[in-house]
Amino acid sequence: MELTREEESALKGEQGEIMQMAYRILVATGEAVDAEKLVPIEWAHLSGVNYNTIGDAGEEFLSNISKNARVKVRTTLNPMGFDIDNVENYNLDKNFISKQLSIKNSYETMGVTPSFSCIPYEIFDIPKEGTQVAFAESNAAIHANSYDNLKTNKESAFSALASAITGKSPYSSLRKDDSPNITIRMKVKNPNELTYGMLGFFAGKVGDTSVNISGLEDMDKRQCKAMCGGMGTSGTCAKFLFGDGDANCEKVDFDEKEMQNIHDELNTSEKGDLITLGSPQLGLEEISDLVGKLKGRSFTKRCMIFCPRTVKEQARKIGYINELERAGCEILSDCCTCLTPLITKNDVDAVTTNSIKGAFYLKNSNGVDVNLKSLSQIIEDETN
């Protein structure tokens, strides 16, 4: 991989141990994806925040490097393991709380914006078309490449942090205008957000690094978000293009049969002990839609709603939070359905959700069964 004189200097350790470590990560990553060089970025979004995912080794690593490391570009942060405002309500292990707060403090010391959100594209201004960024959160990377017209690799926690520290990232194929070799034809009629989540999950399985998807003419922003969340869980695909692609593309149909196969794979229970909404986290438009669908109804069982802190504050000013709390909802910021210690198999057997991403992680990481339904169906079945 071609490096500039300054990059070579940093790799040799002439700019300090932190920069040397960061450039080693970037060079190793770049060589793995056949990148020809490094390019400047303007924004990094980091994963590797939840103590459940990085453990003691990750916490110790961040604690050590935060003594000297500082980010060079705007850097935002994925969700952590709990909402700091009400952590005492959830009987969490004191060691977990301590280590999670240490991780939070380390990132803040390095100059990272403590956004604790997996939907940076909804709570921050989007840069101009073609801007190079480095997003580690899978749904955000896909959304950036496919909908926001930005350019990012599907970064790891380490490579995104290295990009934040250096302001550089490998120039891989995802950063270039490419032509996917497969086209998925959307054939399901009257799709909802759950349908698009399953379409994304299917695309992640059959696609390589990118896919074409036709039949998306009526897809709205929330459905796109659900599709990006599903796609990010099932494979390496990190970009979709709208349309049929060229004549040489392999054509694959996503129809009722394929949709049912995915539903059967992820739906492992006929009912849930609690409801979770927000994986990816809910934005203000989704909260507004939920309040509108409730129409004064209340949930008959516990319902946990996950959204960014900035969205919660906006929703409170409008009056949405009062309405959701009246309906029996717990509204949590800073964390997400996925990988949270707030939901464990010791407390619940199954969770009802409308999220494909949430279903995948609840089943495979939290170890609980999943009852998969659309939001409209959840409102119909679980409120009175």
Q: Which architecture of the largest domain does the CATH hierarchy give at level 2?
A: 2-Layer Sandwich
What are the low-pLDDT stretches, counting only 5+ consecutive residues below 50?
none
CATH hierarchy class name of the largest domain: Alpha Beta
Q: Portion of residues in helices?
A: 40-55%
Q: How many helices?
A: 15
Round the mean pLDDT to the nearest integer and report it: 96
Question: Beta-strand level of the residues, as a percent range?
Answer: 5-15%
Our count of domains comes out at 3
Structural class label: alpha/beta
How many runs of DSSP E, i.e. beta strands? 14
Shape: globular
Rounded to the nearest angstrom, the radius of gyration is 21 Å
Keywords: Iron, Lyase
Pfam families: AcnX (PF04412)
Catalytic activity: (R)-5-phosphomevalonate = (2E)-3-methyl-5-phosphooxypent-2-enoate + H2O
Family: Belongs to the AcnX type II large subunit family.
Structure described in brief:
The chain is an alpha/beta fold. The protein has 15 helices and 14 strands. The protein has three domains: 5-175, Aconitase, domain 3 (2-Layer Sandwich); 182-264, no CATH class; 268-382, Aconitase, domain 3 (2-Layer Sandwich).
